[in-house]
From TrEMBL:
GO terms for cellular component: nucleus. It comes from Aquatica leii. The keyword Flavoprotein does not apply. This is Replication protein A subunit. InterPro entries: Euk_RPA1_DBD_C (IPR047192), NA-bd_OB-fold (IPR012340), NA-bd_OB_tRNA (IPR004365), Rep_factor-A_C (IPR013955), Rep_factor-A_N (IPR007199), REPA_OB_2 (IPR031657), Rfa1 (IPR004591). Belongs to the replication factor A protein 1 family.
Amino acid sequence: MTEKYELSEGSLRLIMKGSQIQNPIMQVLGSKRIASGSADKERFRLLLSDGKYAVSFAMLTTQINDKTTKGEIVDNSIILIKRYITSVINNSGKASNKKVLVILELETLVPGDQITKIGDPQNLPDDDTEDAPPKKESTNFTVTSSTKSSNDSTMNVTTKTANISMQDQLTHPISSLTPYQNKWVIKARVSNKSNIRTWSNSRGEGKLFSIDLIDESGEIKATAFRELVDKFYDLVEIDKVYYISRCQLKLANKQFSSLKNDYEMTFTNDTIITECHDVAADIPQTRYDFISIDKIAHVEVDTLIDIIGICKSTSDLQTFQARSTGRELKKREVTLVDQSNSGIALTLWGSEAENFDGSSQPVIVIKGAKVGEFGGGKTISTLLSSIMKINPDIPEAHRLRGWFDNEGVQNNITNISAKSTASRFDTPWISIKDVQEQNLGQGERGDYFQFKGTVLLFRSERALYKACPSEDCNKKVNDLENGMYRCDKCSRDFPNFKYLLLGSVNVADWSGNMWVSLFASEAEKILGMTSQAVGEASENSPQALAEIADKTHFKQFIFKCRAKMDTYNDETRLKTVAIRVEPINYKEYNAQVIARIKQCLS
DNA sequence: CCCCCCCC
């Protein structure tokens, strides 16, 4: 084992001086949990050895904490460090800064239980300022690049005087920031920037804007208030990289941010922000934590999530008044699908909705979309703080594009935004014979059922009446024979009325026939005419209604009915109302027929 | 110190 994985002897000394060593191999001699402000943000500190030197201040970035909690890193484990940064931590109040090695990515080469301690490593002193060993000394590792300070023996690593420029300092990883320590400099990219917003409440009023900052180790939100808005708003530009120092840290309110950080920062009068023109490639763009669409079905409402999906379809732009504020709102609904063969409705707002063009079925990526619920299905919506990208150049987007074009486009998609109105789906399909034999309609609410029926007769007598012209009143009016019409329900006389149909139809299926009654809206669907048009035709010709009714014969529809016992003139009998008459959806109808045939065969 | 983010 030891032959196979030789430790990168001497590499720790160079690393702690700021050099970049390619894939150094180290042994873990110890690890311990570091107490932290919040329980879910634990950190791990490692005692690392390169076989020659040992360093006790190495940390795992929190993203890879699971390496220790899963038991992958135990004492004596040999690890390959794939990515790391060195940084300076000021022990608040103490005179000297401390160098720290933050491991961003690692691979365990040999589990600790299969090996013992290698060599007799000596602690590397904190104030190690001697020159690094000359390069000709034989080493088994490669120095790929070194920081400016590594060929300068005075090193800025332990310097914190204000008159050196920030560029000369080693920067701190965002993930190492805490409210307990405020001497730091981060080098971070602005991945999102809000507009300037004002507020006014019981605690006062003012204005603010916020930005999202990202580096290789993590991300954090930063907010500027009041006069600091004027100072920084124009200075800070989206996608650019800055050195930032002297902000105040506080606990983040997770409800309002999807960023993976327990803290957020507030700009202060002492905050310094300078642009970094020498942008290292290792400052990432936006970081996402995508959740697949099928899993959103189980996510709590109001949670902020990151999502990637193909825009399968889009609705037209809709404009309406907000009920609460009365403000005019614009929205567009987009259906996103992904490899889980699930779809979800995404709502875009305002100008984002207006300008959106989904005709090419692009990949949509959103950081910080809000999960909502409508009619029992889950939906998502963008917020002002969301970042939306169309066809971003990231591996996940290319993978999704490939899946959709090759396969997903023809897959059946389960839409998790579908309304789940149980009663509608459960309406049983039964025959007319069953309706008559099953003694339906005894209950208070009546019984609901549906069937495919053929119209045998549309009764034209008394199919039309003059109704109250008030919008929501369909009461029959009395013709006062003086040009006025009285509505008893509204207790008013009107100079006009509206025509309404009151349908009564004899419908048949394979098993029998029965009479069903229909409200105007459904009778209109069978006649293919509005009540008003039928009424006007009748005024011109007394035969018109009979002729119109004749044309309905042998038309077929799906009748969704309610059967209920009804008492009229002391006579109690079953009354069936077709509450909805719909054209036959053969896909749905045939599925039901096939299901019943299968049931018969089993 | 904000934290509103809308509708069916």
